[in-house]
Amino acid sequence: MLLFQQLFLQHITHVDGSRKLKESQTKKKSPDPTIQQEPIEVDASMIVKEVYAKNILSKSKVSDYTINPYIGCEHGCTYCYARFMKRFTGHNEEWGNFVDVKINATSLLENEIERRKIGKIWISGVCDPYQPLEKKYGLTKGCLEILLKHAWPVTVQTKSPLVLRDLELLRKFDEIEVGFTITTADEDIRRIFEPNSPPIRRRIEALGELHSAGVKTFAMIAPILPKTEGLVAQLSGKVDHVLVDRLNYHYADRVYRRHKMECAMTNTFFVLKKMELANALEKEGIHYELLF
Question: 205: buried, middle or exposed (CB in 10 Å: 19+, 13-18, 0-12)?
């Protein structure tokens, strides 16, 4: 999906990174911004920093606003357009090896929501709001609770069944939809391009559970990866609509070449797959939108 880099312009202050993980859920005052501390190391490949953001509601070209409680994403998808933000944050780590946690996200939202005109919120634009760290920090849940209190409409987009933790909260909204990004029907392909993301089956099951509970749901087949055959049939009865888009960025070019899948980067591939998916969606009676 062709998104714009403005989605990430939520200016941040990188501070207080050395708090131990067991202390991270305690209430903290904003530290002296002149103090830059060492990041938290979760394991050999993942570095987590707790940071204080300057704002949390950003204008978006996709929705009225976007909220990104985290910077970076543990899923580490090779094609992710959000990789561009490393140019703004100064991270030297590989994508998928760092996450900055905006620990003041909920307090910022409490203040900002009072001053903004009501509009639709997209959670999230440049991170997965339900990546594994959400289980610990609960920032997405906290933001949803505030949005519910003020009756703002919300779109949640994720790859994680952790969203089911908040099912009862989601059901209280008058206007909300939850979408799962699912780019292929093949687990081997998923492991190549989305190495740390939840399995496809678990995403589809989560969509079904949300849909059965009365929450509006959608699937985002974007970017279209090889072996989408059978995906639409698995989505039938679990989604209200489907969005389809091609690969628009070139971050994963080396991955395609390494696995000899260059043909899956061509216009011909995307046009053919678009037609196949459209036919399958029509056959299943699923509303859809082709974004290219």
Answer: middle
Confidence of residue 240 (pLDDT cuts 50, 70, 90): very high
> Contact, 9 vs 58, CB < 8 A?
yes
Q: Which of 154, 151, 146, 145 is nearest to 66 (CA)?
A: 154
**Angle at the Cα of 248 (from 153 to 92), degrees rounded to 5?**
90
Residue 33, SS3 per DSSP: coil
Give the number of residues written for the chain: 292
Task: From 200, 263, 192, select the one nearest 231 (Cα to Cα).
Answer: 200
State the DSSP code for 25: T
More confident residue, 159 or 18: 159
| Statement: residue 118 has pLDDT above 90 | yes
Q: Does residue 245 contact residue 221 with C-beta atoms inside 8 Å?
A: yes
Domains in the chain, please, with CATH?
1-23+32-173 (no CATH), 175-292 (3.80.30.30)
What's residue 276's pLDDT?
Answer: 98
Could you give the count of Cα atoms lying within 13 Å of 272 in the half-sphere of its Cβ? Answer: 12
pLDDT digits (tens, 9 = 90+) for 130-188: 999 999 999 999 999 999 999 999 999 999 999 999 999 999 999 999 999 999 999 99
Q: What is the pTM of this model?
A: 0.85
Q: What does the DSSP 8-state code read for residue 126?
A: S
The SS3 assignment for 13 reads strand
Give pLDDT, residue 9: 38
Q: Locate all alpha helices (DSSP H) within 157-266, ordered by sequence.
A: 167-171, 187-193, 200-212, 231-235, 253-258
Q: How far apart are CA 133 and CA 216, in angstroms?
A: 25
